[in-house]
Amino acid sequence: MSTSFPPIASGTMKTLAAKALMLLTAAGMRLVACAQTGFAEAVPAGLTEEVLLSGTAINGYRLDLTRFSDPRPGSVLLAEIRRIWSQRAAPIQSVDQDGWSRLVQVDGNTIETFEVRPATAGSGTQGKRSRLRKDDRVPLPGDDWMQRALPAGSRVLNRIGHQDGERHMTTLVAVTSASSATAAQELTLALAQVGFRGPQRGSPSFEGEGRAMFLARGHEDLAVTVSEHAGQRAIVMHWGRAKR
User: Do residues 192 and 207 touch, judged by C-beta distance below 8 A?
Assistant: First the structure.
């Protein structure tokens, strides 16, 4: 089998962490609601939320994220959240920044935020709510062979696992000092050894020199990019598989 990373151009990686998280929070993405112990209940009465992320695994943490629009003033919602959170022993911090009014509570290994601002159109309030909690037991399907496929000496920056509809997905972000061509070659060989074949479809584009490949293994698919980043090469591997 002969598989290669074609050169690509035009686009940017910006920061590595931001690129990885953008895969999760792209506009319009809806993720299935999973069990959120204590999170779904700790909301003001009558608040209707859209679940963006539910139990998403990020580097040994779990992230729940929702957004909402509500006809009530933000001050009313903040007061109600403060009342709910005050039932815990942890202190509550208040921050106003960039037009958002935000409450933050750190309770043990859990950080919760609740932020509101006036609706951009009409009256009422729009806001977001999140909870980030430590969970070292979080499974990341595919993480083991993705890390083994990296060029020697690579440094992993982010490992993110989530569920998108009926699919399990894992994203790995790493950097390497190997050249773009060497990194691409080593990744190609390592992924072929675990059964991935490709390319499957056309390459996306990034600003500056870079390489990309789309592979498949049965009902699994894998997108891999190698791009220049701050004097090193950035590797982003995004894997998905339908739920069994």
Answer: no
**Which H or E run includes 193?**
helix 180-193
71-102 as b/e: b if 16+ CB within 10 A: eeebeebbebbeeebeeeeeebeeeeeeeebb
Give residue for tokens 């990686």. Answer: 13
Fold of 49-134: Double Stranded RNA Binding Domain (3.30.160)
Model pLDDT for residues 76-97, shown as the tens digit of each residue: 999 999 999 999 889 999 999 8
Q: Quickly tell me which residue has 């691409």 as its tokens.
A: 184
Residue environment code for 21-33, b if the CB has 16+ CB neighbours within 10 A, otherwise e: bebbeeeeeebee
Domain boundaries, the chain: 7-25+137-242, 49-134
DSSP 179: -
Q: What is the DSSP letter of 151?
A: P
Bond into 199 cis (ω within 30): yes
Cβ–Cβ under 8 Å, residues 82 and 91 = no
Q: CA torsion sign, 116 to 121 to 124 to 126?
A: negative
CB 55 within 8 A of CB 35: yes
In sequence order, the β-bridge partners of residue 124 are none
What is the pTM for the complete model shown? 0.54
